[in-house]
Amino acid sequence: MTLSMSMAERRSNLRSVFAAQLLYACSPVLGMRLQTSVPNSPAQNQHVHLTTQTSMTAAAMPVLRTPMHPRSLLSMPSILRSAPLQMSASSLATADTNTAVPTTARIVFVASASPSAYGRTSPMPQPPWTEVAAHLASRLSNFDSRVLGVAFDEAEVGGADGRCTDAFMDAVRDADMVVALDVRSASAVSAIDFALQNAGSRVSAMVCSDCSEELSAMQFVGDYKVRAGSALEAAAMKLSMSLAPWGGVARGARLHAQAVSLLQRASSEDLVYACFFIIHAYVMPLPLVKHTISPTWEKGLGNLAEFYKMATCCGGPILRAVRDETTKKAIDMLNECDMRDQVGSYRVIVSFETPLLEAFSLCILQKNNCFNCNSEILRTPAVPVLSEWRGAPLTWETASQIFYGHLNIPQAHSAGARRDWSWKVVCGANPAYDAFPAQHQIFYPGKAKGSIWYDPVFKVETVDGRAVWRRRHYRVRRAGGTQKGTSNHEADADAPPGVWMLSTLDNGVISNERWTIVDAADDLSWVVFHYSGAASVVGQSYVGALLCTDTGQRNNAHPKPRPYPNLRAILS
């Protein structure tokens, strides 16, 4: 018997063993723990939390009667190809009703007139809840034109004898979801209860933020209810979640917990995503939240296909990543959150940046797109571009000078303060990417004619309490024209000066962004930028806006040719 082995066989064995290690870590996908002959594997020590759902019933779930040897993983591609790997987004959205996918989704907001906790870093903080609700209702269609919203003041929904007004009843009857914000009055609670009881089966969810205890107990998402109708129903739901984590009750419970977590952050961005996750799950597929690199019950056996591709394409980078304590900690924390939660996931990423994490992401996501994600830059709302500055039409040269701002370089405008940075951020609209403290923006010319580079430098308060500085490096190009690398989107063919395309490699993932100079003071005392971006291979699209000055403080003492623009519309 020979002990020699060809290099190809060794690579094959290593690939099989590593795939088995990944499957061991991901055994909840099959509802069991797979037994392998790999002792003390790194993947066994990972706390990878999977939440996936498939259309299989408990009886249809596969069961392994004998231990699974790593060699058997060699046949996994054919097994995966023959298996129903996952439900499509549209089938997920209509699995419970088996009807055609709706063409629109409607969300009803009910809010009090009390001050909210929103806008903590805004020049106009603590807007009333009614204003938050109205703004969110109008903003939904910017992310997807098929999602519509309507807002009600809690004082306007109550009717006689515990009923609700006709207008509110009609709105709830046509709604797919109800969101209550700081609703505490007894009449409003009774009105919402009455409307839900008489609205029929169309409403898929009702969630609350800062509401009365009575109303909070009425929350439900799909088959999950916060307060069951009886002790027997409560026991049945608990048993269902335990025995069938892929089932409707467990699915609703996960979505409810996710919505509650997002609503507690008091940002319009997170509230929009909380609504979209539920609409996508129960009403119709939404491209904004369609893709996720997280393992989920909804993907079913598709999780195995993804992990097999990761193991075969990126075994080396994965092994090196999980062997490094800091990188493994980051991966474990990312596994615990939904990667569509851009606020939570990006905070983890900036907290634990390492070269190994970048190589891990570069291979799995950017080079091989193991999760088949594809997201595009959002084109709505159509943000106005500054057309005139200092009494003259904006040109690419003057638009560049606005970018350079106060940086101490010869190309900057003479109105600049000649600092070590171009701008500092007063406040931002997106809590994931532009709400960091001490944000310095540095725009500077490149060597090629007309080229610009952008280096944001920002302070991060990490998830484990540290304070660290981070830096990014963007290439800046004009959106229109013939400059190499400009946008090829038809809407940008004739983009005016002030519209730019930016790109960067952020921890192994390429992000592309479309920036617009919305407005700027003639003396450069302030500027407003808007951006819309996408990290395509992660399945993320995002929008944001920035109010900047030379100091990062509101320049109330500065003479301003005109007041700040309508920041509420752009920055919230």
UniProtKB/TrEMBL annotation:
<dbReference type="InterPro" id="IPR012674">
    <property type="entry name" value="Calycin"/>
</dbReference>
<dbReference type="InterPro" id="IPR044682">
    <property type="entry name" value="VDE"/>
</dbReference>
<dbReference type="Pfam" id="PF07137">
    <property type="entry name" value="VDE"/>
</dbReference>
<dbReference type="GO" id="GO:0010028">
    <property type="term" value="P:xanthophyll cycle"/>
</dbReference>
<dbReference type="GO" id="GO:0046422">
    <property type="term" value="F:violaxanthin de-epoxidase activity"/>
</dbReference>
<protein>
    <recommendedName>
        <fullName>VDE lipocalin domain-containing protein</fullName>
    </recommendedName>
</protein>
<feature type="domain" description="VDE lipocalin">
    <location>
        <begin position="311"/>
        <end position="552"/>
    </location>
</feature>
<dbReference type="InterPro" id="IPR010788">
    <property type="entry name" value="VDE_dom"/>
</dbReference>
